[in-house]
Amino acid sequence: MSLIPTDGTVLQLIPATGTVELECSDEKWQLPLIAYGVVVSYVDAAPGATLPGDHVEYEADVQPVVLVDGMPTALRSYIRYDVDGHPTWRVV
C-alpha cells in the first residue's frame, strides 16, 4: 500500500456547516458543506517511491468539502469529474 498522497487526497478536515451554491450556464444547484479540507492539489514522486521519506513533493490547499451522493468530496474534484462546464461557486 502506498503512503504517498495522490491528487485529491484529503490530509485534514475542519468541520463546517453551510451550503455551496454552484452556477453553470442557466443551471443553479446547491450542495451541503460539511468541512474545509487540506487537499493535495499536485504530486511529483520519484519512480518507485512508496514512502513519505522517498523523494516526493506535493502541494496542498484548503478547499470546501461537500457531500455528494452521501460521500465527502473535495469541491475541486467534484467540479473536475462530475460537472460539465466551468461553474462559479460560493459558500453561503
What layout of secondary structure does this protein have?
Layout: E1 10-24, E2 27-45, E3 56-68, E4 71-74, H1 75-82, E5 88-91
Antiparallel strand pairs: 1-2, 1-5, 2-3, 3-4
Comma- or semicolon-separated keywords:
mainly beta; 60% strand; elongated
Task: Walk me through the structure.
The chain has 92 residues and is mainly beta. 9% of the residues lie in helices and 60% in strands. It has 1 helix and 5 strands, in the order E-E-E-E-H-E. The chain has one helix spanning 75-82; strands at residues 10-24, 27-45, 56-68, 71-74, 88-91. A 5-stranded antiparallel β-sheet has the order 4-3-2-1-5. Strand 1 (10-24) and strand 2 form a beta hairpin. The chain is elongated, with a radius of gyration of 15 Å. The N and C termini lie far apart (39 Å).
Please work out how many helical segments DSSP would assign: 1
By helix and strand content, what is the structural category?
mainly beta
What strand order characterises the main sheet? 4-3-2-1-5
- Main β-sheet: number of strands, strand sense, barrel status? 5 strands, antiparallel
Rg computed from alpha carbons, rounded to a whole number of angstroms: 15 Å
The geometry reads as: elongated
Number of strands: 5
Low-confidence stretches: none
Query: What distance separates the N and C termini?
Result: 39 Å
Strand/helix succession: EEEEHE
Helix content: under 10%
Mean pLDDT: 85
As a percent range, the share of strand residues is over 45%
